[in-house]
Write a structure and sequence with these properties.
Layout: E1 8-14, E2 20-26, H1 35-47, E3 62-68, E4 71-80, E5 88-95, H2 104-118, E6 124-126, H3 133-141
Parallel strand pairs: 5-6
Antiparallel strand pairs: 1-2, 2-3, 3-4, 4-5
The structure holds coenzyme A (COA).
Residues 45, 50, 92-95, 100-106, 128, 132-135, 137-138, 141 line the site of coenzyme A.
Length: 155
C-alpha cells in the first residue's frame, strides 16, 4: 500500500509533459511508505562515492515525496535544527532516474519551502559532493547556492 494513515496528500501538480504527480508530506519517515526508497537512494549514493557511509536520517525525520501512477518517484528528507534560524536541514533529495529533468526536484523543493516556512525556518541547507553537478545545478535553480567547501586529508 502506498499511503498510510499519517502521510498527507498536500498537492497535485502537472509537470511540463503533462505528468500528474501527487505530493505527500510524511511527518515521520518511520512507518511511511517512502522509507525503502530513501534507503535505496542513500545506498546508491554511498556506492557512487557521493555520500559518506553512515546514517543520514532518524525515525522522526520528515519527508516530502512525489507519487506518479502509484509509484514513489522522488523525495526530500529533512529535519529542523534547534538554532536561531530553525534551519531546515535536507539530508537527501532524490528523483527516480527515469523521471529526472522533468521538474520534480523543483516541485518538491517548493513544498519543502512551504513546510519550512510553516515551521518558522529562515534557512534551508544541505551538503553536496563537489562532483555532483546535477545536485549543484538543481540547488542553484531554487536559490540554494554553494557557500562552504569542506576540506579533507585522508590519513
Ligand atoms: C539532483 C536531482 C534530485 C535533480 O532532480 P530533477 O527532478 O532531475 O531536477 P529538476 O528537473 O527539477 O531540475 C532542477 C534544475 O536543475 C537542473 N538540472 C537537473 N539535473 C541536471 C543535470 N543533470 N545537468 C544540468 N542541470 C540539471 C535543471 O535544468 C533545472 O534547472 P532550470 O529550471 O534552471 O532549467 C536528481 O538528479 C537526483 O536524484 N540525483 C541523484 C541523487 C542525488 O545526487 N541527490 C543529491 C544528494 S546531495
Amino acid at each position: 500500500m502506498l499511503n498510510n494513515a499519517y502521510d498527507k496528500l498536500i498537492s497535485k501538480v502537472s509537470l511540463i509533459n503533462d505528468m500528474m504527480v501527487e505530493i505527500y508530506f510524511a511527518p515521520t519517515i518511520a512507518d511511511s511508505p517512502v522509507l525503502p526508497t530513501i534507503f535505496r537512494a542513500h545506498a546508491d549514493l554511498m556506492e557512487a562515492g557521493w555520500a559518506n557511509y553512515g546514517h543520514l536520517t532518524n525515525n522522526r525525520s520528515k519527508a516530502v515525496y512525489a507519487v506518479l501512477d502509484q509509484k514513489i518517484v522522488g523525495f526530500m528528507t529533512y529535519d529542523f535544527q534547534d538554532d536561531i534560524w530553525k534551519t531546515c536541514w535536507v539530508y537527501l533529495s532524490f528523483v527516480d532516474p527515469n523521471f529526472r529533468q522533468n521538474g520534480i526536484f523543483k516541485v518538491l523543493h517548493k513544498h519543502l519551502e512551504d513546510q519550512a516556512q510553516k515551521n518558522g525556518s529562515r534557512k534551508i541547507c544541505s551538503l553536496v559532493h563537489t562532483d555532483n553537478q546535477p545536485m549543484i545545478a538543481s540547488g542553484i535553480s531554487v536559490g540554494r547556492y554553494p557557500n562552504y567547501l569542506r576540506t579533507e586529508k585522508k590519513l
